[in-house]
Amino acid sequence: PGALDGLDYKIEWSTFEAGPPLLEALGANKIDAGGTGDVPPVFAQANGNSGRIVAVQARTGANDFLLVPANSTASSIADLKGKKIAVTQGSSSHGLVLGLLDQAKLPVSDFQFQFLGPADALSAFTAGQVDAWAVWNPYATIGKNTAGAKIIADGREVTTGQSYFSAASEALADPKKSAALADFFERLARAQVWADAHPEAWVPIFAKLTKLPEDVAAASFDTSKGSYVPIDGQRIAKQQRLIDLFTAAGLVKQAPVAGDWFDARFNAQIQAGAK
Length: 275
Fold this sequence. Notes:
Elements: H1 19-27, E1 33-36, H2 40-46, E2 52-58, E3 64-68, E4 84-87, H3 92-104, E5 112-115, H4 118-126, E6 132-136, H5 139-147, E7 150-154, E8 162-167, H6 169-173, H7 175-197, H8 199-210, H9 214-222, E9 228-229, H10 233-248, H11 267-273
GO molecular function: ATPase-coupled transmembrane transporter activity
Organism: Rhodococcus hoagii
Keywords: Signal, Transport
């Protein structure tokens, strides 16, 4: 509370169902900045999006999950060979699936992917039209609560464990907007430290803001904890490995250089806020 008090600039908020459409809007300079998982920037960069990753959150837990119906006998992704898996194309959960397949040394061609947004995927999963659903929170918790889903895998061992804030090229080139972003990211990093330390105070606020049931908000927040950290070689290398995974799967034609899409100009502010 109070993290955005005393601003000398105005923030206009927009909501997106997933990262790919957010970065599409950002690449068109229709928004100035926005947060996503790790996979949407892979496709944004490969498609020539002019935005840049300017802030990194290193999460402490898993935020992507592979769900199956309560009556399913599957206990790993290997048990889903030949089955239908719902996933949002280009999302962090798409990265989860590829990471699990890479870990199990299984080809993508052994599985049937149904590329659906979270809302449509939930409907398909509930109706029994797909055999599994790869998704992030809060949708994973909603799936458990409303459809009796069970989790058979998560992303702790196979994903970057990173979430990003990206900024639009025009916003970064505008001195006033760039200065506002610098201030915002320091406040964001500071607010994350406070929220992680005070979940009992933050979760009711988070639930009210997102209009989620409090138990869903609590589960979602618990899997999204983690400090904002400076952009460095370690963070970039994790993203490059993810890019290479999508390239090997034939989903990205030519692997871009991850470092070209990172901009560390706000590192000092993020470090100051995360203290």
